[in-house]
Structure formats: C-alpha cells, structure tokens
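Incident log, structure service

09:12 report received: a user says their structure output differs between two submissions of the same chain.
09:20 pulled the input from the user's history:
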Amino acid sequence: MDATTYSVLNPYGIVSRVFSKGKLQFDTVVIHSDNSDSFHDHRVCFQSQGSELLDQQTKFVDTGKRGKIAVTFIKTSYNGASRLAAYTYQGPSGFTSEPLKLIFDMFRGELTSGKVQTGTFYRFVALNPGSSQEDLTKFIGQFVDACAAASDRQMRLIRITVTPVRIDDVKLILG
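09:34 re-ran on a clean worker, output below:
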C-alpha cells in the first residue's frame, strides 16, 4: 500500500501478503483501525483499480474459531480476465459483510463501554484463473482461524501484563 492509501484510510496498519499452496495463490489485505473512514464499501476500490464487477453475493463461511462469518464474494473482470474476490469486516461484536454495520457496531461499543473501538477489514483475491469459490472459501476459513489464534494469544499476553498488582506484591518485587 502506498502513502496515499495510508493517508486516506488513516489505519493503525495495513498488511498485504500473497499466500501460495500448490497452484493456488491468494492475495490478502488486512486493515485494522479505530477510524470509521477506514471501512468504506470496498466494491468502490475494486472499480477504481480497474475491475468490472460482474456478480456479488453474501455467504457464510465456516471457521473453527469464530463460527460462521458473513463474507461478500464478488466476481470481477480485470484486464479481460475473470477473478474471484471476497471481503468481510470484524468489529467488537463479530463479523459482518457490510461496512455500515461495522461502523454502527464500533459506535455502539464506544457508547456502552466508554472506550474507542476498533475494527478490521479482510480482503481476499484468488490470483489463479482456475480458483473456485470453494478454494477461496476454504482459504478464508483457514486464514481467519490463523488470525484468531494469533489474536487470542496476544490478548492473553495483554491480560497478563495489565493484571492489577497489589501493594504487597510490589514490596516483594522491590525487596
């Protein structure tokens, strides 16, 4: 992602990677932010990058760690080649395929908790012309599970480091 993208979206971070296994390749982008401007309708991005949208449908993808998640699958034509892509959003209450639902979820979380809420956007593009929706669906489930495992591990570490310390414990540490 270039500096202009970061400037416009203003996220905590954007990670873009291509994953390969055998003949399959999937281009992934993950955007994490507390800024609702980061979470627009990503069909606009596909079109602005030269893709023609041919079809769109929302389906549920089974994941082992996050249950069934709503994902929007789109078929595009890019430079005359057919491509399959998908995207989903994750907010405080879980996954949605709609950016406005994510933004509302973040807002509701701020009202109820008094704390700024974050969201995550996941975008997947099957790079091989022969990739099927089943291939992409399987990859999405595996990717979300891998992210969930890493996220859960990180949250356990954060809880450990912010555990309240009693004064008696401080005396023991200081001698």
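09:41 both user submissions now match this output. Likely a transient worker issue. Closing.
09:42 reviewer note: The mean pLDDT is 80. The first helix runs from residue 3 to 9.
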